[in-house]
Write a structure and sequence with these properties.
Four copies of one chain form a homotetramer. Chain A has 381 residues and is α/β, with parallel strands linked by helices. The first copy, chain A, has two domains: 166 residues, NAD(P)-binding Rossmann-like Domain (Rossmann fold, 3-Layer(aba) Sandwich), CATH 3.40.50.720; 192 residues, 2-Layer Sandwich (Dihydrodipicolinate Reductase, domain 2), CATH 3.30.360. Chain A is built from twelve helices and 14 strands. A nine-stranded mixed beta sheet of chain A has the order 13-12-11-10-6-9-8-7-14. A five-stranded parallel beta sheet of chain A has the order 2-1-3-4-5, sandwiched between helices. At the A-D interface, strand 6, strand 7, strand 8, strand 9 and strand 10 of A face strand 6, strand 7, strand 8, strand 9 and strand 10 of D. Strand 13 of chain A pairs antiparallel with strand 13 of chain C, so a sheet runs across the interface.
Chain lengths: 381, 381, 381, 381
């Protein structure tokens, strides 16, 4: 029987959507108990919110440093810490927790620079701790179905992968100075990229996750629809992958009418797949020269990885919370196995790792360099 | 600040999908803590499963009677009990818990007979306890949006409502003798109806919920696609409602290709609505002589009832767990208010009540009578 | 090599959509040349319009009687006459042309009464002339694909057929007195039914066409959403077919948001089909326990009947004109074969016949009787 | 009253889909009569086919030169000649007919080189004849609706346009040596590009047509999924337009599961549009911060340009034939007006011109140059 592990979170305060999704996702499969948190930049507000969510007063911390000190000395300390703070702080906080023996799930982007990302990978390895990065869309059962189908050779060799994350969420010029939007276009807070690192990176992780390939080089165009912005709100990237796949990415915050807009299309020698995050419970699969199939989440015949990731029976909808829950279940399985020195369920290894996080950072920096150099083809490393 | 209440469940054992949905739904908004349960007809298996889910050994009961005895004497007794047992036992168990001062959420159908249903309504009233019936689809945010739009007169007077719950889940003749399927067609276990009470009743609750009207009379056709069955696997019903709406219902287990198949269409004098459970995060709304609008769950401008029912931001998917969670949140709000003698949030009154459960039972019996009498129009009461 | 035949039309004057569709459909495959017409109740207007369309002045007639006289004596007389006049005149005009040796394609409904319909069938037989009825939707390639799949046993024995023709075209109360709408609800012009005969009859023909079965009995509900109307604007019908199929029909003019609303779903023992007129180039096919297939018009592996009915390559859209053209091509093939005493291409026999027209009239009258008698089950004959 | 003009075609022989579409499209609105043709590279086969289609024996020509000689001396000579021959012959044939006073509709690509394209524009001007290029998709009513909405400022300034023409039509490696496929990848027959000039060029014309802008510079990636090919079967292009729009194009023949795959998305400051050729009768329009509207072809309130382009009433499907017909109607109107020295209906000026054809050729050559130069940004001129 599974024993529940204590879990804590830094960031994700009241009103934060990502905070809710982490709390709900970590709890859904009863692997983790929400035991500690430093939820807000305002210490008092953070403590109060944590307490209101059922956290013991003693473990409702004012900031991450206090949490680290408080938890590391406890026998029942949290085993996994989720870092859901502003991007510029991911590196420092994740590093500190890892070095103190905590497992970490870090929100994306994992770090601001490639150097930090490499260091974090090394830190996790030295500490012998799990460091996951929350590419939460990879938790969707049908995304895992795509990965399994590609790995099983159902599509043959992959020729082309087309990834999009394009919606209208940054399109309102009247809202451009809203601090909630504006920081994404401020290089000091956002780094080298806005919509590409905020959205495109998710689509690119999915392209890598599903194909099992890594990006080797890119030709990127960063553009501005709202010209006052310092960073791009629309970008396209042509890329190549180490397994030979040709890639196309479109990321945009200007695409009015696309509510969310994350999609993935994968085309191999003998089949194609198409998935849209907005209808996550259906996957289109077309064998060469045959009609397209609508694959329903949870239906008979799906891959073990996909069925394991399901929570309710076929025909019922699942969503973001269940996708996050699958990441947490993977982490739980892997941490449990590590504690007893066992091999984890191989299907649990689908969670996004620090190495994936590093690849994303290398990628986004290569894209930014290419964009600066007239879309010149740019190697990742 | 909200205080978590203790919650228990009868039924919903290992492998039961509805059990997971209740546990997950009750927990999502942290209103309820899973504190007690009698989860299985096999006492040992039920206890073991409850303990594995984190229930204290002392409150992992062997059967509902034991649970009732164990809980009613505790200071920290469960306040809400969910009854998710076989249909023929709903009445007895719900009645017993209500009479002992517990609030109850009963799975549908609430009872087997109209008399039982009336008695349960009376019992709940006498006991001054909440008795909800789990028409879980009414928890979907966009179903509540439909109800709000109708109530606000956006469609004008409702002319026609078309409800369907038709899928292929009973279509496999090779599977017809599987006990999981067969009991639904055995009058001793299923009563007067199979697919109509199993599925149609959900669609009809939704028709009533959204229009705010009750059914007054029906003309039903119960038919058999798999002729060995004693009860219907496909039915259609014409009906009239007390607010003047014309109604059409189609319920079927034979509709291969419709995975789940619950849909609702509502047409008023100046607008129409269409919603499908399989894509629950979109609602089609058409004003007279104007283009159809695709309303996204969580988008700006939706009704307070709909926005209150949302959990993640627009563009992200929600599903069955979140819908169940909304029923539990309603019940939590209503119970809390009752405890302090306050009026609950009016939006919390959207949960399906024992009166709704009674109406469903009256309806299903009228449908069965009409079907037996050559589809003759039959009054509900 | 095919020789073009002369063709004429009665009705379908300027501004008439059906007139355009007949002219375009008859011309598309170059089987027929538009050679004569009596296009309008206003003789001058009709002549002028015919001439403007390239008809010789001598054959631009003032009314159908004049056309009959003018054409029957010509060597190059029209071989096929389309009757697209108000419903109450269909019988008289079709009968006259048939008796004078013309082949006829009559718009639906073929006649107002069952007696007339029977007589017309007899007249055509005596005259040894083709009499088709324009259930034009049966010309869509994927409707023919459905028929072929059912005939080939792909679905197994048909259990349930669900036909709908429900749109918002009669929903605007402000438009209810518009003569274009009003006549449909006037028993003197429309007969026993409004939306059922206007729309439902198309859906029912399609149900019969695709299943190869005829309706034996019905239980109908005729209802009024706009209460000032004398005839129904919303109806539902349960029915049984002579091959054992269970049927459900919904016809409505009140369904705001459904632009056109003709759909057909067919469910057999081992498969299901679903088609919507508004997306006529895709057909959903689901084998039992397998994913749904999206069958594209014109794709490899479709039935000969379906491929024969296609005009452009897969991926390009076809529509109403091509569907009508297929009816005309069938009629052309059958008439040609008859002229030389040969057997026509068996695939050409898919066109809707006078017998089909008769069945529709029997059906609509049985529906009207059932509706009057409290939805009592009513035999067709 | 409109007088029918004589029309002829070079190419489009038996079995050619484009031939049927031109014959059907030119005939649909009765503006043109099919009077002459040189339909096949095999003179006898071409004559025979023309005669079988009703062309007079004397005007069923063996080749285009014979047709030019035969027609130019006739009083009733064809006024418009469609050139639907292999790409490498477009220039010579179109030039010859224009110089002899015929109006021409040339299939795309108009020429193989920029120089030829410029010359053809000059030739048409000198000859004072209409030279259209068959970007047939621009004939779809809802494509014209998009153009009208952009021109009317409904979307505000256009920020981003995303054009795709990506399907699985070149994906079958087993079919790669089929001559029907292979010539497209042979530089001698196809020129500098395969899928980009075959498909992408359509999408790019549509991007220009709808936005009213021209492309100024491109960064292209030409790639090979089937590596034996000399020319690209998958390409992506970032571009900029003279009105400030940012552009993205994806063209592919490898996209298994996308049957046809032509789509256009346009995003402005205050609205977005999305259209897919496979569902051409619906257009998605989203005003900023409002729900998406589904605009139906033919519905009330559409632009005059869109309504003029419709043939059947709302809810009925139109397709490729009707789209081609709209190009022919435009040409007919323009030629008629020219003949009498009048201004044509301004709405008729929507047809794609030789200048558009030239722009396409400049574009495709710039794309090919950019692709050769490591995706370097390349000016069109």
């Amino acid at each position: 029987m599974m024993k529940t592990m204590n879990w804590g979170i830094v960031g994700g305060g009241e009103g934060s959507q990502i905070g809710f999704a982490h709390r709900a996702g970590s709890a859904l499969d009863r692997k983790f108990k929400f035991a500690a948190g430093a939820l807000d930049v305002d210490p008092a507000r953070g403590r109060e919110f944590a307490i209101s969510l059922g956290v013991d007063r003693a473990r409702a911390y004012g900031d991450w440093w206090e949490m680290l000190q408080g938890e590391r000395s406890r026998d029942d300390r949290v085993e996994l810490v989720t870092v859901a703070t502003p991007n510029v702080t991911h590196f420092e906080i994740s590093k500190a927790f890892l070095e103190n023996g905590f497992h970490v799930l870090c929100e994306k982007p994992m770090t601001m620079t490639v150097e930090e990302a490499r260091e974090l990978v090394a830190v996790a390895k030295r500490a012998n701790r799990v460091c996951g990065v929350n590419y939460g869309y990879s938790g969707y059962p049908l995304v895992r179905q795509m990965k399994a189908m590609v790995a099983d050779g159902v599509l043959g060799k992959i020729r082309v992968v087309v990834a999009e994350f394009a919606g209208g969420f940054m399109a309102d010029a009247a809202d451009a100075d809203n601090p909630r939007v504006r920081w994404r276009f401020d290089p000091k807070q956002a780094g080298v990229s806005a919509v590409s690192v905020d959205c495109g990176i998710h689509a690119m992780h999915m392209a890598c996750f599903v194909t099992g390939q890594k990006v080797t080089k890119v030709s990127s165009d960063f553009a501005h629809g709202i010209t006052s912005r310092e960073l791009e709100d629309d970008s396209s990237t042509a890329f190549r992958m180490d397994g030979g796949a040709i890639g196309r990415l479109w990321a945009s915050g200007l695409a009015i009418g696309r509510t969310h807009g994350l999609t993935l299309q994968v085309f191999g020698e003998v089949g194609g797949l198409s998935w849209k995050q907005e209808q996550p419970n259906q996957l289109l699969y077309t064998p060469l020269n045959e009609p397209t199939r609508i694959i329903e989440r949870g239906s008979a015949g799906l891959s073990p990885a996909s069925l394991r990731a399901g929570h309710v029976t076929v025909g019922h909808a699942e969503g973001m919370v269940e996708a996050f829950a699958n990441i947490y279940r993977d982490l739980g399985d892997v941490i449990e196995a590590a504690k007893v020195g066992a091999q984890p369920n191989p299907l649990a290894l689908d969670y996004p790792t620090a190495e994936d996080g590093l690849h994303s950072i290398e990628l986004i920096h290569a894209m930014a360099r290419s964009a600066k150099n007239g879309s010149q083809w740019t190697d990742l490393i």
